[in-house]
Amino acid sequence: MVSENNGARRALVTGASGFIGSRLVPALLSDGWKVRVLARTPDKLDVAWRDDVDVFQGDATDDEDLSQALDGIDVAYYLLHSMDGKGDFIERDKKLAQGFAKAAERHSVGRIVYMGGLHNDEAELAPHMASRAEVGRILEESGVPTTILQAGIVLGEDSASFQMLRHLSERLPIAIAPKWVTNQVQPIDIDDVIHFLVRAADLPSEESGALDVGMEQTLSYREMIRRYAEVTGLSKRFMATVPVLTPALASRWVGLVTPVGAGVARPLVGSLIDDAVKGQGSARDASEVLGDPERGLMNFEKSIETRTKDVDTKRFWRVGRRVIAAVGAAAVTGSIMTKPDGTWYQSLKKPSWQPPAAVFPIVWTGLYATIAAASTMTIAERIENGDEKEARDYATALGANLVLNAGWSGAFFRGHSLLLSVATAGLLTASSADLARRGGRTRPQIGALLSPYALWCGFATALSAAIARQNA
Question: Alphabetically, which GO biological process terms does the record hold (predicted)?
Answer without folding.
Answer: tetrapyrrole metabolic process
